[in-house]
Amino acid sequence: MLTFTPRLQRDVAEHVERAYTGEAPSLGRIKNCYGRDVVIALLCSYLENLNDFTGVKQKIELDQQKEVATIFLTEYYYLKITEVLLFFYRLKTARYGHFFGVVDGMFITGAIYPFLEERRAALLQYEKEKRDREIREERERRSTESVTYQEYLEQKKQLKKLGMKSYSFQELALEYFPDRTAAAAAKQLNSWINNIPDLEDKLIAAGRYKNQKIMTPLQVSIITHELGEPDKWVKERERIARENALQEKSKKENK
């Protein structure tokens, strides 16, 4: 807990968003990990630092410090330690008023209310900014994954050739690998899809989900656009098989 000394207050004030939304532990978590006495001692160090900072004659005594610290731990256990540091920094700036002749415990516990309102407003704003950012990123992602009109016409052409129908994944796989079992063909087609950059992302954008059984016409067209039409692959494999057979025959005849 040596990290969260009063000296950290200025750094926290310079990074307010991180103070509110960062991963610093809450008072309750510190208590659970290190014990109640550690939290009270830490809060008392902030109060003593406030004593040293103020120009008033009557300081807050140790017993009062412990009582204020106990109130903080009991009522505001959910506050991150960085938020508490920010609160004490703002007390020093007279953001919530001035001390008149005495460092008053009641004034300190009262000043937490406007701080909590500021915290609530800030968290709402950060959440809104996060949602807006995610929406922008999603729009950008979709724009990069969208197809041109020419690509749309090509996909439409592919759909027409395939009869404008939906296929089960195994049925489509068998179009590419008719000489294999349905399971083996599906496994091979999945392997091809995974090895082509961005193809899986395009299918997900087109609505594909885990363990999907029936492929939509659009998903079928995306696959055939990337891999080529199934009959071309079948003809190519048949050609390669014929060439291999001729080579084997030639080798035997030359022996």
Ordered list of secondary-structure elements with their pairings:
Layout: H1 9-14, H2 16-21, H3 27-34, H4 36-53, H5 62-75, H6 81-92, H7 105-145, H8 149-161, E1 167-168, H9 169-176, H10 182-195, H11 199-205, E2 214-215, H12 217-227, H13 230-254
Helix pairs in contact: 3-4, 4-5, 4-6, 5-7, 8-12, 9-10
Short description:
This protein is mainly alpha-helical and 255 residues long. It has 13 helices and 2 strands.
How much of the sequence lies in strands comes to under 5%
- Largest sheet entry: 2 strands, antiparallel
State the helix count: 13
Helix proportion range: over 70%
Order of helices and strands: HHHHHHHHEHHHEHH
What Rg, in angstroms, do the CA atoms define?
Answer: 34 Å
Q: What is the CA-CA span between the terminal residues?
A: 83 Å
Q: How does the helix and strand content classify structurally?
A: mainly alpha
What is the 3D shape?
Answer: rod-shaped
Calculate the mean pLDDT score and round it: 84
| Spatial strand order of the main sheet | 1-2
What is the number of beta strands?
A: 2
Runs in which pLDDT lies below 50 for 5 or more consecutive residues are none
